[in-house]
């Protein structure tokens, strides 16, 4: 072969003064003495690679080799050139292989193959040629078997004897370079040994893939009796083997290969192929229920988490993930997952509501937590909704968004069911010993759910739909609390501002006691709802009191009686204020109404009365002449002319700021509309 022959001629020319020709090489180089002078001027890749030998005529072979740093010299053995090395016998090469001196054995094999090939043209003994070729191929088979055994057992050998794996890799590189030189020569001469190229790279990768397939192994037999256990077993088996192997690849095998080989990516691709076949089988096994989430979680989280450590690239990682299963299969699994999530959520919500209804029907008082009536129902519902959001987002953002829309639909369905259940209870259990406590508990549940929606839901339209149901539920519960209280108060309120009332404080005492009893229960409402209810009850009590004044059932006959009425109204207004302040009321809107009315009744001077009426009108612009006439009815011997002066003040524009911002004493009162 001319390329190898030229190299030997050049190398000999540079070293003929310092190198003794051995008898084994002299025969093969005789023809080289007659090379034409310009033979060296032709481009020769091998010569270019080892140019220091021809350019510097170096006599020191080791020094010349040192100048070819990082170049594997496939034509050098132990720092010496072929022509200065004795050609080893087949037996000697075999011993090198048995001693695991693979790199040196391969160097001698390459030389032996070359020597036999170059002798083909001069050797006429076909039997001898066949025998020698057979011996060479037998040695190559022995060497390749040893090398590929090392490759196949890389996981173990890279830890126990990494130098052996490095040697095997060097042999691979050496053989690939030999293949390349033979192929280049074939392009010129049209002739190379029949076994070249030996294609070690293809065989090497095939062994790697075979090794990966064997290490991952096969899946355990599927079981229809316990599919969840089988799925867990499969995923744990794949995961543990994959993690252990990739750790070995990164920490032990990767250092044995040149960086440009990208050995980690090659391994990753083979693991992906094998795992993909397993995952496809699992996906086609008919996963149901929560097993789908377990499966998708492994695909979207566990698998990429391991692979990214090997690929060290998000792009490669995403590519590996995208090709793990066909898109059609992934879409089917996602749809199944969302369907399972929705049906599971609805079933769990219904079950939680059933438990709540059973608690209502019992005679047990609701639980108290942080001084408020507490129910586990809203906690359960929030956990169901939030858990579905969180689990879906852990898979993909797309599934997270889809799950959110689906779960908000289920939340809407639950709230409608919750609303119906509450109404049914309230219709059928009015005499329940804990009726008010349960109504408060339901209101608190609405408040808890409202807070969650306000904090977590960003979809304005869907959130508004949900909040509208909660608003309606809360309003109905408040109405129940008001009606329950005022049904008890009504008989006593009717006694206010009457002759009997003036003689005995019993009506206000009863009102005080009933209200206090109710407020002690209402304290177990959560703060926002509690303040709303407290304010509305307080304001309604004040307007109910004023209503009794408007009825004109009491007329003062003397100035002392007039003063007594004013003092009693003032005193009872103070009592109500103190009661509601004791229970934490922050409402002050109508607090001044009764004291101002009492003052109008108490005053004698018309001008002073006019000023007080003006002050009342200033605070409560909805006060009308019929209301003032009812108050003046309490006055002793009120002249018509004085009454007219007083009423005229209502026709005078006052320097109000914005009347819409002032209190409405009568307009919003359901009790006073008939007046």
What is this entry, summarized?
Helices cover 70% and strands 1% of the residues. It is an all-alpha fold. Strand 1 and strand 2 form a beta hairpin.
Overall geometry: rod-shaped
Q: Beta-strand percentage?
A: under 5%
Q: Summarize the biggest pleated sheet.
A: 2 strands, antiparallel
Number of strands: 4
| Alpha-beta content class | mainly alpha
**End-to-end CA span:** 124 Å
Mean pLDDT: 82
The oligomeric state is single chain
Total number of helices: 28
Write a structural description.
The protein is mainly α and 675 residues long. It is built from 28 helices and four strands. The strands form two sheets. The protein has a two-stranded antiparallel ribbon. A two-stranded antiparallel ribbon has the order 3-4. Helix 9 packs across helix 10. It is rod-shaped.
Topology, please?
Elements: H1 2-13, H2 23-29, H3 45-49, H4 51-55, H5 61-66, E1 76-77, E2 80-81, H6 90-98, H7 102-119, H8 126-152, H9 154-160, H10 162-189, H11 200-216, H12 227-253, H13 263-283, H14 290-311, H15 314-322, H16 327-361, E3 367-369, E4 372-374, H17 377-395, H18 397-428, H19 435-456, H20 460-493, H21 499-503, H22 506-522, H23 527-550, H24 559-582, H25 593-602, H26 606-619, H27 625-632, H28 640-648
Helix pairs in contact: 6-7, 6-8, 7-8, 7-10, 8-10, 9-10, 9-12, 11-13, 12-13, 12-14, 13-14, 14-15, 14-16, 16-17, 16-18, 17-18, 17-19, 18-20, 19-20, 20-22, 20-23, 24-25, 25-26, 26-28
């Amino acid at each position: 072969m001319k390329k190898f022959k030229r190299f030997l001629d050049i190398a000999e020319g540079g070293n003929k003064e310092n190198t003794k020709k051995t008898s084994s090489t002299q025969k093969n180089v005789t023809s080289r003495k007659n090379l034409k002078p310009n033979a060296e001027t032709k481009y020769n890749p091998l010569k270019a690679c080892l140019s220091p030998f021809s350019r510097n005529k170096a006599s020191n072979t080791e020094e010349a080799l040192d100048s070819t740093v990082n170049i594997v010299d496939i034509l050098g053995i132990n720092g010496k050139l072929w022509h200065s090395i004795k050609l080893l016998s087949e037996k000697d090469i075999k011993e090198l292989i048995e001693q695991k001196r693979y790199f040196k054995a391969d160097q001698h094999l390459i030389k032996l193959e070359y020597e036999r090939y170059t002798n083909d043209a001069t050797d006429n003994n076909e039997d001898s040629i066949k025998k020698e070729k057979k011996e060479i191929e037998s040695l190559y088979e022995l060497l390749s078997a040893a090398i590929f055994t090392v490759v196949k057992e890389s996981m173990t050998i890279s830890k126990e004897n990494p130098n052996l794996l490095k040697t095997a890799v060097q042999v691979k590189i050496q053989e690939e370079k030999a293949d390349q030189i033979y192929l280049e020569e074939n392009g010129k001469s049209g002739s190379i040994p029949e076994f070249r190229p030996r294609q070690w790279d293809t065989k090497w990768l095939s062994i790697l893939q075979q090794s990966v397939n064997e290490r991952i192994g096969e899946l355990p037999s599927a079981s229809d009796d316990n599919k969840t256990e089988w799925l867990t077993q499969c995923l744990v088996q794949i995961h543990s083997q994959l993690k252990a192997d990739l750790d070995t690849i990164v920490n032990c095998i990767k250092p044995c290969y040149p960086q440009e080989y990208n050995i980690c990516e090659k391994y990753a691709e083979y693991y992906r192929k094998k795992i993909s076949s397993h995952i496809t089988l699992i996906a086609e096994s008919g996963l149901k229920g929560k097993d789908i989430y377990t499966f998708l979680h492994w695909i979207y989280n566990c698998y990429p988490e391991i692979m990214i450590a090997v690929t060290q690239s998000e792009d490669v990682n995403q590519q590996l993930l995208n090709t793990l299963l066909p898109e059609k299969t992934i879409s089917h699994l996602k749809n199944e997952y969302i369907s399972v999530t929705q049906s599971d959520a609805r079933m769990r919500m219904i079950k939680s509501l059933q438990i709540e209804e059973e608690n209502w029907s019992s005679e047990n008082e609701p639980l108290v937590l942080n001084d408020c009536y507490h129910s586990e129902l809203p906690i359960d519902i929030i956990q169901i909704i939030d858990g579905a959001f969180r689990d879906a987002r852990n898979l993909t953002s797309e599934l997270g968004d889809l799950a959110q829309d689906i779960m908000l639909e289920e939340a809407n369905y639950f709230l409608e069911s919750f609303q119906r259940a509450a109404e049914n209870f309230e219709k059928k259990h009015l005499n329940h010993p804990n009726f008010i406590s349960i109504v408060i508990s339901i209101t608190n549940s609405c408040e808890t759910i409202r807070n969650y929606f306000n904090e977590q839901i960003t979809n304005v339209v869907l959130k508004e739909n949900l909040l509208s149901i909660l608003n309606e539920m809360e309003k109905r519960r408040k109405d129940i609390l008001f009606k329950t209280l005022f049904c008890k108060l009504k008989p006593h309120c009717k006694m206010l501002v009457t002759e009997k009332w003036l003689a005995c404080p019993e009506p206000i005492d009863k009102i005080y006691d009933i209200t206090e009893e109710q407020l002690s229960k209402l304290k177990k409402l959560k703060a926002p709802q509690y303040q709303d209810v407290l304010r509305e009850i307080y304001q309604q009590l004040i307007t109910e009191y004023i209503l009794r004044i408007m009825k004109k059932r009491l007329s003062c006959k003397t100035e002392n009686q007039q003063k007594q009425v004013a003092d009693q109204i003032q005193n009872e207004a103070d009592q109500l204020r103190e009661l509601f302040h004791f229970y934490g009321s922050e409402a002050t809107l109508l607090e001044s109404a009764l004291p101002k009315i009492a003052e109008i009744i108490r005053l004698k001077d018309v001008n002073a009365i006019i000023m007080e009426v003006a002050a009342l009108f200033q605070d409560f612009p909805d006060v009308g002449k019929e209301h003032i006439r009812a108050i003046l009815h309490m006055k002793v011997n009120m002249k018509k002319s004085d009454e007219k002066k007083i009423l005229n003040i209502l026709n005078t524009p006052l320097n109000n700021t914005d009347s819409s911002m002032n209190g409405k004493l009568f307009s919003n009162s359901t009790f006073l509309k008939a007046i």
